[in-house]
Amino acid sequence: MRAVLSLLLSLLLLLVMAPAGMAEPDDNGSASLKAWTADVSPDLVEELRLAGLGVTAQEVIDEETIRVEVIATGKQVAEFRDEAQFTRTRGQQRVDRTPDVATGDNVFRAYDGTDGLEAEMVAIANANPDLVKLVDIGDTVEGRDIWAL
To answer: Domains in the chain, start-ordered, CATH in brackets?
Structure first.
Protein backbone atom coordinates (compact mmCIF):
# COMPACT_ATOMS: atom_id res chain seq x y z
CA MET A 1 0.00 0.00 0.00
CA ARG A 2 2.84 2.39 0.81
CA ALA A 3 4.46 1.69 -2.54
CA VAL A 4 1.24 2.53 -4.39
CA LEU A 5 0.76 5.70 -2.34
CA SER A 6 4.38 6.68 -2.95
CA LEU A 7 3.98 6.09 -6.69
CA LEU A 8 0.79 8.17 -6.83
CA LEU A 9 2.41 11.03 -4.93
CA SER A 10 5.42 10.91 -7.25
CA LEU A 11 3.17 11.05 -10.32
CA LEU A 12 1.17 13.91 -8.83
CA LEU A 13 4.38 15.79 -8.07
CA LEU A 14 5.59 15.29 -11.67
CA LEU A 15 2.30 16.57 -13.06
CA VAL A 16 2.42 19.66 -10.87
CA MET A 17 6.10 20.41 -11.55
CA ALA A 18 6.16 19.70 -15.32
CA PRO A 19 4.33 22.87 -16.44
CA ALA A 20 6.55 25.03 -14.24
CA GLY A 21 9.67 23.44 -15.68
CA MET A 22 8.48 23.96 -19.25
CA ALA A 23 7.34 27.55 -18.76
CA GLU A 24 9.53 30.25 -20.23
CA PRO A 25 11.55 32.02 -17.55
CA ASP A 26 10.93 35.70 -16.86
CA ASP A 27 13.56 37.42 -19.00
CA ASN A 28 13.27 40.81 -17.29
CA GLY A 29 16.05 39.97 -14.85
CA SER A 30 18.00 37.52 -16.98
CA ALA A 31 21.74 38.08 -17.37
CA SER A 32 22.05 36.07 -20.61
CA LEU A 33 21.99 37.79 -23.99
CA LYS A 34 18.91 37.29 -26.14
CA ALA A 35 17.43 38.81 -29.30
CA TRP A 36 14.56 41.26 -28.74
CA THR A 37 12.32 43.17 -31.18
CA ALA A 38 10.51 46.47 -30.60
CA ASP A 39 8.94 49.33 -32.51
CA VAL A 40 10.64 52.52 -31.32
CA SER A 41 11.12 56.18 -32.20
CA PRO A 42 14.22 57.21 -34.17
CA ASP A 43 15.56 58.99 -31.06
CA LEU A 44 15.28 55.83 -28.99
CA VAL A 45 17.45 53.89 -31.48
CA GLU A 46 20.41 56.10 -30.56
CA GLU A 47 19.59 55.82 -26.83
CA LEU A 48 19.62 52.03 -27.13
CA ARG A 49 23.06 52.12 -28.75
CA LEU A 50 24.44 54.54 -26.15
CA ALA A 51 23.14 52.24 -23.39
CA GLY A 52 25.20 49.40 -24.83
CA LEU A 53 22.41 47.38 -26.43
CA GLY A 54 23.53 45.84 -29.70
CA VAL A 55 21.12 47.12 -32.35
CA THR A 56 21.57 44.42 -34.98
CA ALA A 57 18.79 45.32 -37.41
CA GLN A 58 16.47 48.18 -38.25
CA GLU A 59 13.40 48.42 -40.45
CA VAL A 60 11.65 51.75 -41.03
CA ILE A 61 7.91 51.31 -40.49
CA ASP A 62 6.94 54.97 -40.95
CA GLU A 63 8.35 58.43 -40.23
CA GLU A 64 7.99 58.02 -36.46
CA THR A 65 8.52 54.29 -36.02
CA ILE A 66 11.49 52.02 -36.54
CA ARG A 67 11.36 48.29 -35.83
CA VAL A 68 14.64 47.27 -34.22
CA GLU A 69 16.18 44.02 -33.18
CA VAL A 70 18.57 44.29 -30.27
CA ILE A 71 20.88 41.86 -28.55
CA ALA A 72 20.65 42.51 -24.82
CA THR A 73 19.96 41.01 -21.43
CA GLY A 74 16.50 41.04 -19.95
CA LYS A 75 17.73 43.52 -17.37
CA GLN A 76 18.96 45.93 -20.06
CA VAL A 77 15.65 45.70 -21.93
CA ALA A 78 13.68 46.26 -18.72
CA GLU A 79 15.33 49.69 -18.35
CA PHE A 80 13.43 50.80 -21.49
CA ARG A 81 10.03 49.28 -20.63
CA ASP A 82 8.44 52.73 -20.26
CA GLU A 83 9.55 53.73 -23.76
CA ALA A 84 9.07 50.54 -25.79
CA GLN A 85 7.41 47.13 -25.70
CA PHE A 86 10.17 44.57 -26.29
CA THR A 87 9.36 40.98 -27.21
CA ARG A 88 11.73 38.06 -27.60
CA THR A 89 12.65 37.41 -31.22
CA ARG A 90 11.74 33.91 -32.31
CA GLY A 91 12.52 32.07 -35.52
CA GLN A 92 11.40 33.92 -38.63
CA GLN A 93 10.24 37.03 -36.75
CA ARG A 94 13.62 38.56 -37.35
CA VAL A 95 13.90 42.06 -38.74
CA ASP A 96 15.37 42.60 -42.21
CA ARG A 97 19.14 42.17 -41.87
CA THR A 98 20.23 44.16 -44.92
CA PRO A 99 23.81 45.39 -44.37
CA ASP A 100 24.19 49.10 -43.69
CA VAL A 101 27.81 49.97 -44.36
CA ALA A 102 27.40 53.57 -43.18
CA THR A 103 26.50 52.51 -39.62
CA GLY A 104 28.26 49.15 -39.62
CA ASP A 105 25.02 47.32 -38.80
CA ASN A 106 24.77 43.75 -40.09
CA VAL A 107 28.08 43.97 -41.94
CA PHE A 108 29.92 40.66 -41.79
CA ARG A 109 33.29 39.99 -43.33
CA ALA A 110 35.32 36.85 -43.11
CA TYR A 111 38.57 37.01 -41.19
CA ASP A 112 40.72 35.34 -43.82
CA GLY A 113 40.68 35.44 -47.61
CA THR A 114 41.38 38.25 -50.06
CA ASP A 115 38.47 40.43 -48.80
CA GLY A 116 38.90 39.45 -45.17
CA LEU A 117 39.84 41.45 -42.11
CA GLU A 118 43.28 39.84 -41.97
CA ALA A 119 44.11 41.14 -45.48
CA GLU A 120 42.84 44.59 -44.53
CA MET A 121 45.04 44.66 -41.41
CA VAL A 122 48.09 43.66 -43.46
CA ALA A 123 47.28 46.40 -46.00
CA ILE A 124 46.88 49.01 -43.26
CA ALA A 125 50.19 47.99 -41.67
CA ASN A 126 51.99 48.09 -45.04
CA ALA A 127 50.50 51.48 -45.94
CA ASN A 128 51.33 53.05 -42.56
CA PRO A 129 54.61 51.58 -41.28
CA ASP A 130 55.37 54.70 -39.23
CA LEU A 131 52.04 54.56 -37.40
CA VAL A 132 51.18 50.91 -36.86
CA LYS A 133 52.83 47.57 -36.41
CA LEU A 134 51.24 44.21 -37.20
CA VAL A 135 51.97 41.72 -34.42
CA ASP A 136 51.14 38.00 -34.28
CA ILE A 137 49.81 37.55 -30.74
CA GLY A 138 48.92 33.87 -30.92
CA ASP A 139 47.06 31.18 -32.80
CA THR A 140 43.39 30.20 -32.95
CA VAL A 141 42.32 26.66 -32.10
CA GLU A 142 42.26 26.11 -35.87
CA GLY A 143 45.93 27.13 -36.12
CA ARG A 144 45.36 30.54 -37.75
CA ASP A 145 47.37 33.58 -36.71
CA ILE A 146 45.74 36.13 -34.40
CA TRP A 147 46.90 39.56 -35.48
CA ALA A 148 46.91 42.83 -33.58
CA LEU A 149 47.61 46.28 -35.00
So the answer is: 27-93 (3.30.70.240), 117-148 (no CATH)
Q: Give the model confidence (pLDDT) of 2-39 as tens digits.
A: 665 565 556 555 555 444 333 333 455 556 778 888 99
Please, are residues 86 and 36 in contact by the beta-carbon 8 Å criterion? Answer: yes
Tens digits of per-residue pLDDT, 89-108? 765 455 555 566 666 655 66
Cut 0.85: pTM above it: no
For residue 126, CA distances in Å to 117, 120, 144 come to 14, 10, 20
CB 70 within 8 A of CB 54: yes
